[in-house]
# Entry
Amino acid sequence: MLVRFRGWLGAIFLACGLVVGLSPGTARAAPVVTGKPSGCVRGVLEAEVRAGERYVRPVGNGLEVMLEPLASGWILRVLPVGEPRPAHDYAELATPPYESVSPLLISTDFSFRAQDAVAWNPRHFRFAADGRAFQQMSAMYAEYRRTDAPSAAVQEGLAKLVSRAPEGTVQILDAHFVPGTADQSKMAAMVASHFNATPHSLEQPVDGKASALGRLTWIRFRISLELPPEFRADRGVTLERYACP
# Structure
């Protein structure tokens, strides 16, 4: 992840990272979306992944979605296909706060227990939809980090770019995990409110020893991405049309 957020900009970013949502829709497959004759469109991927495994699929526009394994779970990334990995990925820059609790982390980081990671469901984020948008965001972020006290204009500029980025959702459809024994943290309590509504199975630790945070061992998930007009979706992506908000 990136750097700690600060001041009023951090508060705005936290709201963006935790609250952004999408409207429901009906399924319809198509490889390319042009215009908005039938409303808005999102691309959908469904899959499963085990602890330590990586999930990566192209979504179109030269981008791919990845669930990258961590010792604590996974982190969602949006990256350019076939290019050197940039310092910050297309979802990371667009989904503040930075180096803090993030909807991109499906993990036990920041004192989230395994059951809290599952109960934060669904998760909402934003992403740069193409290289040009990413470069604009990268340049503004670099300016934001150039001094310890960025100007109001720079903060507003970065917040505006983030707010214009398309939205995405990660929904955990099922999960297996070893539960943690620690008390729920205050931050987890803010977002981990759908434990009972999320299908899940509890597992015993392999060594028979409980731990404070537990461990995620497997998830089945659905990733939905809002696709801007003219976004050329990969053929492996299911497209759903829905009423524009």
Summary: Residues 1-37 have pLDDT under 50 and may be disordered. The longest strand covers residues 214-227.
